[in-house]
Write a structure and sequence with these properties.
The chain is α/β, with parallel strands linked by helices and 212 residues long. It contains seven helices and ten strands. The strands form three sheets. The chain has a six-stranded mixed beta sheet, with helices on both faces. Strands 1-4 form a two-stranded antiparallel ribbon. A two-stranded antiparallel sheet has the order 2-3. α2 packs across α3. It starts with a helix and ends in a 9-residue tail after the last helix.
Length: 212
């Protein structure tokens, strides 16, 4: 029987929400060269997969963070999925902007969040961790407790895992980089030779040079 992380990896690869190109790397907005590209917003266009992810995110929250009293989605990728999860759990929902609005009330958190709420933050992707931990700070600065974060996928960079530990934010993800590689190899999306490239990239993604 497949593990949950392998099942989710299979679905993400199936709809090309995750693409692997070891021989023809992508360039991220940060300028990093990468053999992987992830766009989990695609999952929203596939009802069965959308429902599976919503259900599993909610299950994790029930099991790991039963004291949660509110759900927050990180803009923009996790707004829709966060709202779906909050609806399933019958909890209030807000979303967290990457920066305050430059007009009106200049909100960083949109919706009505009561101070002292116990918040679970939903992310579609945890990559470098910067936007995720910025969202954590916004919730804490508002006077609420972040009881944990749940995400669809993570690259699992060691430095990011350390950052979450230092910030005291428990993180649970439905799938991860290793599960995607295992599943991609099973369906012959990649070859055994590609694995060395994919693993080498994750050791030092900021300085990885595919031409070396």
């Amino acid at each position: 029987m497949k593990t949950l992380e392998r099942l989710i990896a299979e679905k993400l690869l199936q709809i090309k929400a995750i693409k692997l190109q070891p021989a023809n790397p992508f360039t991220w907005a940060s300028g990093w060269k990468s053999p992987i590209y992830c766009d989990n917003r695609k999952t929203l266009s596939y009802p069965a997969i959308r429902t599976a992810i919503k259900t599993e995110l909610a299950r994790v929250i029930i099991e790991k963070y039963p004291t949660a009293t509110a759900i927050a989605g990180v803009a923009t990728g996790a707004i829709a999925q966060g709202a779906l999860v909050a609806d399933l759990l019958g909890l209030p929902f807000v979303y967290i902007r990457s920066a305050p609005k430059d007009h009106g009330l200049e909100n960083l958190i949109e919706g009505e969040l009561k101070t002292s709420s116990k918040v679970v933050i939903i992310e579609d992707l945890v990559s470098t961790g910067g936007s995720s931990l910025k969202a954590v700070k916004a919730v804490r600065d508002f006077g609420c407790e972040v009881v944990g974060m749940v995400a669809i996928f993570t690259h699992g960079f060691p430095i990011v895992e350390q950052s979450f530990k230092e910030a005291k934010v428990p993180l649970v993800t439905l799938s991860n980089y290793n599960a995607v590689i295992d599943e991609a190899l099973r369906i012959k999306y990649i070859t055994q030779e590609d694995i060395a490239v994919l693993q080498e990239w994750r050791k030092d993604p900021a300085n990885w040079d595919p031409d070396k």
